[in-house]
Write a structure and sequence with these properties.
Elements lengths: L9 E4 L7 E4 H5 L5 E6 L9 E8 L7 E3 L2 E3 L2 H14 L3 E10 L1 E3 H18 L3 E10 L1 H6 L4 E4 L4 E3 L4 E3 L4 H7 L23 H23 L7 H7 L4 E3 H6 L5 E2 L2 H11 L7 E6 L34 E5 L3
Parallel strand pairs: 4-7, 4-15, 7-9, 9-10, 9-11, 10-14
Antiparallel strand pairs: 1-2, 3-15, 5-6, 8-16, 11-13, 12-16
Helix pairs in contact: 2-3, 6-7
């Protein structure tokens, strides 16, 4: 019987056979791989024209973590994985971004916007955003990366603005007799500490940060093809929300329509003559699904869930987020 080798991160099993069976433990610990799920079967026997639906659903985050927004999936990673699947499938002729999101973390939102722009540049296929119940704040920011944006008449659109969310528990700690002490290298090193009040100068620093992120948002909206000018965006960018119909009137979206209309628009822009196959990528395929099927139960939680744990409390974050 041959001697089994030891490999880091692997289990080697000899099973009394010539050679050795090596099981990579890392692969066993990973979640299920993305699978293609056919939602609508199209025409074509030897080849198929496909339109891929990619969901951006729920609060947008850049990590799998427990924080101010509760337990969240890595939205950036999941979006990137689906774009890669589209890129390697030569039969996909266009993409519909199905957006139902109130927004989320500033950096994660901007990364997704960037990934979509880079995807369009490299693949030269149409990308249309379809806003369902809400495409607000970061959800709308992402939609601006598409070639065209549709919203339903009852969609919530807009909320162009930035939030810096943190806590101040200094008063509570004083009441219960708890004191904190920060040993710091410079005066403003802990300016976002939840354990003390901020000075007027520190508030000015934080306001400048928020203003910079706000101007970035305004730029993204004003650079959208067919969208409003920067001057017009500034008139709309006070955090207000619009119905889909109102958003069309102020040029935040290109059309008022439904998900099926977005699919038809991609078909038109991709010059697909026959009935396309509509697909999505999922890690948990379900039978009986259609174009309105959600990606998974983990995205059912739609609002911001505040988790007051020791890990979550001290951490402040910037958000492109609409929270009614």
């Amino acid at each position: 019987m041959p001697r089994s080798a030891t490999f880091p991160g692997h289990i080697a099993c000899c099973l009394f056979l010539p050679g050795c069976i090596v099981i990579p433990v890392g692969d066993l610990l990973k979640g299920p791989a993305l699978e293609e799920q056919v939602l609508v079967r199209g025409d074509g026997f030897f080849s198929t024209d496909k339109i891929a639906i990619i969901e951006i659903d729920g609060v947008i985050t850049g990590g799998d973590s427990m924080g101010l927004l509760g337990s969240q999936e890595n939205t950036v990673s999941e979006l990137k994985a689906r774009l890669v699947r589209v890129r390697i499938d030569g039969e996909v002729r266009g993409v519909v971004l199905r957006i139902s999101s109130p927004g989320g973390e500033v950096t994660a939102t901007d990364m997704i916007h960037h990934e979509i722009l880079e995807f369009k540049k490299a693949n030269k296929i149409p990308v249309v955003a379809a806003i369902l119940d809400e495409g607000a704040s970061g959800g709308y920011y992402i939609a601006c990366a598409a070639d065209q944006v549709l919203a339903q008449p009852t969609s919530i659109v807009g909320s162009i603005g930035v939030l810096l969310m943190t806590f101040n528990v200094a008063g509570l700690f004083q009441k219960i007799g708890v004191e904190t002490e920060a040993i710091k290298s410079a005066e403003k090193k802990d300016l976002l500490s939840p354990f003390r009040n901020r000075t007027p100068e520190e508030k000015e620093i934080l306001q400048k940060l928020v203003n910079d992120m706000y101007q970035r948002f305004v730029t993204v909206v004003s650079e959208r093809t067919g969208g409003p000018t920067r001057e017009d965006v500034m008139k709309l960018a006070d955090g207000r929300i619009f119905s889909g119909k109102e958003a069309k009137e102020v040029k935040l979206v290109d059309r008022v329509g439904y998900l099926a209309d977005a699919i038809d628009l991609v078909k038109e822009r991709a010059k697909i003559d026959r009935k396309p196959t509509i697909i999505r990528y999922t890690r948990l395929a379900r039978s009986g699904s259609n174009i309105y099927t959600l990606a998974g139960a983990a995205r059912e939680r739609r609002g911001v869930e505040l988790v007051l744990s020791a890990e979550a409390l001290p951490r402040a974050k910037l958000f492109y987020l609409w929270q009614p």
